[in-house]
Amino acid sequence: MQPKYPIILFAILVLVGCLQEQRNEENIPQENLPNIVWLVAEDQSPEWFPMYGDSTISLPNPESLAADGVVFTNAVAPVPVCAPAVSALISGMYPTTLGTHNMRTYTPWLAVNQPTLDSLPSYSPIVPEGVKMFPEYLRKIGYYTANGPKEDYNFEKTDAAWDESSGERHWRKRKNGQPFFAVFNYSVCHESQVWNRGKDSLYVDPQNVKVPPYFPDTEVIRHDLAVNYSNLKRLDDQIGKVIDDLKEDGLYENTIIFFYGDHGDLFLDIKGLCTILELKSR
């Protein structure tokens, strides 16, 4: 659950390096390589989850992963907002090193980046020479790599990273016996869904939520907090489908599953405001 970025990437890259060395020396069959799955809860922090002490709502699937694995209790992100954080995740480098620290410099799906800023064009930072998206290293040792539906790396991706990157990605498209790395991005808990799903069914009574001390205790705030908890229930259902598929395919025991948030909490006074929070804490 939202492990340290250095821990995630260091662990995976060490694993890749060790597997490459072992395969070179011993020619290990591909079926002996562990599978890797990322379950990415967008815009979420540990404080919302039962594994970290919040009893507001039960989330059986993340809780089952915690029971079967390891819960990280010292989690940090290099930046408190989406695209720069994702650039770090996919490369293992700090956004300030990559040149991707400015939010959403690269928007290839739009004609212009920010129409309100005098038609600022979209541009891809030029990352340091030799930098690769780390799934490319997995592909080189035989992994099937699949991602979706979101990319948002804040720089122009390399074509060698993914076998497939789309909303239809799945490990079931790989060759028989091929190890896989699959990323499932969940936007149901993204900041935007607080208002997009504001009139949907609530799975939590707004009167039963705990209001953080930095928010006013109002009906609107309580409703928005209840919406986010309800979206986590929807997230739980979607994660359950992936876990069920892994177990149905007999892959659960040979799959390393990471469940984490891409950068942290979604609400105002948190998302995108790391410096302000630091100053307020002093």
UniProtKB/TrEMBL annotation:
Keyword set, alphabetical order: Hydrolase
Domain Sulfatase N-terminal, chain residue ranges per copy: 34-265
Domain of life: Bacteria
Family, per entry: Belongs to the sulfatase family.
The protein's name in its UniProt record: Sulfatase-like hydrolase/transferase
Phylogenetic lineage: Bacteria, Pseudomonadati, Bacteroidota, Flavobacteriia, Flavobacteriales
